[in-house]
Amino acid sequence: PIPLGIYRLLVVASTGTGTPDTAESQGLVFRRSDASQALIALLEPSSVQTVSFGDYVNIGWRDNAPSAATIKLTVGAHATPGTETETTILDGRTAGEGGVNDSFAWQVPNTFAPGTYYVFAYITRTSGLGADNSSVAPAPIIIKDPAKP
Questions:
Q1: C or N terminus of the chain, fewer CB within 10 Å?
Q2: Could you tell me which residues are beta bridge partners of residue 30?
Q3: How far apart are CA 58 and CA 45, in angstroms?
Q4: How far apart are CA 33 and CA 74, in angstroms?
């Protein structure tokens, strides 16, 4: 079984020679533990972003919440959520009904140390039961050291 979350199906066809053909489905698959569970999937950054202090990073996601839910975005230096301290960069944004795409432009503050960071998203129903689902961005953000251009 796959973990709970939002998925897009891909088909890869190979004849044994040459580059395989890939087709991506237009629809999404939502795997929930119960019918009212809220889901989120980070889509961006989808490639490594190398940035300087003051630069903006676009963070994009897809959410689906059958009932009222909120979005929280955090940044941490470890690729696994919850393994160390994360810095909250967005909290309390209402999740769009019907699973609309959403985004947030984060300006990199100079309070972060240079290094590699990962973006995490959490979606929580307003019932206060804790995060229903979380997601890790497909690619990290690298903050350049201004002393070492």
A1: N
A2: 6
A3: 7
A4: 24
Q: Model confidence over 76-98: pLDDT tens digits?
A: 999 988 888 999 999 989 886 55
Q: How many angstroms separate the CA atoms of 45 and 138, rounded?
A: 6
Calpha distance 138→149 (Å, rounded): 26
Please list the residues that pair with 102 across neighbouring strands: 61
- H-only helix segments in 23-149: none
- pTM of this prediction? 0.81
Q: Which segments within the chain are labelled E, that is strand?
A: 5-7, 10-13, 21-24, 29-31, 39-44, 49-51, 56-64, 69-76, 87-94, 101-107, 115-125, 133-136, 141-143
Question: b or e along 50-88 (b: 16 or more beta carbons within 10 Å of the residue's beta carbon)?
Answer: ebeeeeebebbbbbbbbeebbbbbbbbbeeebeeeebee
